[in-house]
């Protein structure tokens, strides 16, 4: 599991309502059996394609949607986009066998709160569902770089920094650049010759100023502006 969340969510006794979306019946059956063995999970519905998933979210109002990617009629990326736009209270957690860069990046940019592979251990899956339900972002091992990869649109990188990033202090911009490069707090502290406590304070300030929920979302937000942000930071001395 990713270590990029700034807090470790604790387990909750509140019932979490789940929608299972996968074109394979045997996969849905296995997931239902596995998840309903947990006292805080209840599977309220199933769908075999993205179109059914959107309709089921509207009808059943699940808390978390476990979404496959490759499905007939409407794939999981399109369904994720539709659900996140139309039903923002539903949290989408992608659970698939495909770790293609484009799938991961697009699903996360369209609003998915997490992306895991189907070989994820059952206990890690349960923890990820609880974390996503609380609003945290969850990524499986090795998926961080894929999640923040720039979309394959062929467009040029932006040449100007948005006002939200310009309002950060020079040191906060340095920290944000390193976050976007995948560095953890210890690595950031070593690179900037500051304490880990200071790094944590900077991260907290960055998330608050940018109105972001965690460092993965921060990395995804800044990834498109990373070249201009790094150039901007090099031209100024840190605080």
Can you tell me about this structure?
The chain has 239 residues and is α/β, with parallel strands linked by helices. 48% of the residues lie in helices and 12% in strands. It has 12 helices and 6 strands. A 6-stranded parallel β-sheet has the order 2-1-3-4-5-6, sandwiched between helices. Strand 4, helix 4 (101-109) and strand 5 (114-117) form a beta-alpha-beta unit. Helix 8 (170-180) crosses helix 10. It is elongated. Residues 1-12 and 152-156 have low confidence and may be disordered.
Descriptive labels:
48% helix; alpha/beta; disordered N terminus; 6-stranded parallel β-sheet; single chain; 12 helices
Which helices and strands occur, and which strands form pairs?
Blueprint: E1 16-21, H1 25-35, E2 41-47, H2 50-60, E3 64-67, H3 76-86, E4 91-96, H4 101-109, E5 114-117, H5 122-134, E6 138-139, H6 144-147, H7 163-166, H8 170-180, H9 185-192, H10 196-210, H11 215-223, H12 226-234
Parallel strand pairs: 1-2, 1-3, 3-4, 4-5, 5-6
Shape: elongated
Count helical runs: 12
Share of helix, binned: 40-55%
Instruction: Give me the count of strands.
Output: 6
The chain-level structural class is: alpha/beta
Beta-strand percentage range? 5-15%
State the distance separating the first and last CA atoms: 34 Å
* Major beta-sheet overview: 6 strands, parallel
| Rg from Cα | 19 Å
Unreliable stretches: 1-12, 152-156
Order of helices and strands: EHEHEHEHEHEHHHHHHH
Mean pLDDT: 82
The strand order across the widest sheet is 2-1-3-4-5-6
In short:
With 239 residues, the protein is of the alpha/beta class. It contains twelve helices and six strands. The model is unreliable at 1-12 and 152-156 (pLDDT under 50).
């Amino acid at each position: 599991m990713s270590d990029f969340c700034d807090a470790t969510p604790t387990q909750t006794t509140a019932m979490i309502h789940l929608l299972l979306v996968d074109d394979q019946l045997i996969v849905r059956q296995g997931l239902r059996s596995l998840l309903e063995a947990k006292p805080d999970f209840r599977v309220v519905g199933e769908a075999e394609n993205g179109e059914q998933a959107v309709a089921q979210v509207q009808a059943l109002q699940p808390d978390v949607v476990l979404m496959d990617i490759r499905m007939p009629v409407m794939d999981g990326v399109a369904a994720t986009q539709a659900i996140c736009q139309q039903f923002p209270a539903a949290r989408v957690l992608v659970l698939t066998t495909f770790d293609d860069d484009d799938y991961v990046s697009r699903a996360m940019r369209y609003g998915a709160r997490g992306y895991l592979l189907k070989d994820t251990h059952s206990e890690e899956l349960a923890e990820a569902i609880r974390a996503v339900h609380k609003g945290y972002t969850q990524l499986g091992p090795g998926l961080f770089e894929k999640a923040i990869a720039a979309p394959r649109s062929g467009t040029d990188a932006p040449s100007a920094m948005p006002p939200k990033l310009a309002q950060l202090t020079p040191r906060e911009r340095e920290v944000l650049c390193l976050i976007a490069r995948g560095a953890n707090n210890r690595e950031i502290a070593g690179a900037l010759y500051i304490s880990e406590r200071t790094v944590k304070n900077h991260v907290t300030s960055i998330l608050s100023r940018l109105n972001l929920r965690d460092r993965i979302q921060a990395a995804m937000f800044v990834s498109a502006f990373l070249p201009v942000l790094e150039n901007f930071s090099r031209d100024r001395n840190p605080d």
